[in-house]
Amino acid sequence: MRPAIFLDRDGTLNVEVHYLRRPEQIRLIDGVPQALNALRAAGYALVVITNQSGIARGYFDHGTLGAIHATLVSALADHGASVDAIYACPHHPDDACTCRKPRSDLYHQAAREHDLDLSRSLMIGDKDTDLLAAKNLGMESILVRTGYGPEYLAQIAAWPDYQPAYIANDLADATRWLLARAR
Asked: How far apart are CA 116 and CA 85, in angstroms?
């Protein structure tokens, strides 16, 4: 079993667009392909876990989400990078699903399907749901200041029982910190 870096999509890999609903809206954040390549070279599986309630809200459908993810994969490939898998929760926040972050079903599914060791894995994202998902799974997390990260800085400071392992400027900074710590 290998460790994974679980990554949020919007605001972590690609520029945040409120309810990104068209493939042409995908724009990689600077340094993302290089960061993913460095993480892969260090032996991590790379798995995207994303909440996409735009489907439940009727903003786009599953086919469009597939096209958005294909565009993301293609943009990464254009820079020589890749992810192992993308998992998306299409449900509304008010739905009683067990796959929407911070719940853990998609993480467990990824672990089963890709032989991942959750106890040696880490979550990188820009929202409280990313950090709380990691907490619920007993893993460390990194908050990136891209996307919604700045909005959550004050909120997480008030959490007495859980803090991210690091607050990074972006995925490239998170990767540098993580790899330096592993030496």
From this structure: 12
Name the residue among 160, 171, 119, 124 with its Cα closest to residue 143. Answer: 124
Average pLDDT over residues 119-137: 95
What's the pLDDT score for residue 148? Answer: 82
Give the span between the Cα atoms of 143 and 71, in whole angstroms: 25
Task: Find the catalytic residue in 10, 126, 128, 130.
Answer: 10
Query: Is 115 labeled as catalytic in the residue annotation?
Result: no
| Active-site annotation holds for 30 | no
For residue 47, give the nearest of 74, 1, 7 by alpha carbon.
7
Catalytic residue among 8, 128, 170, 173: 8
pTM of the model: 0.95
Tokens at residue 146, please?
């891209």
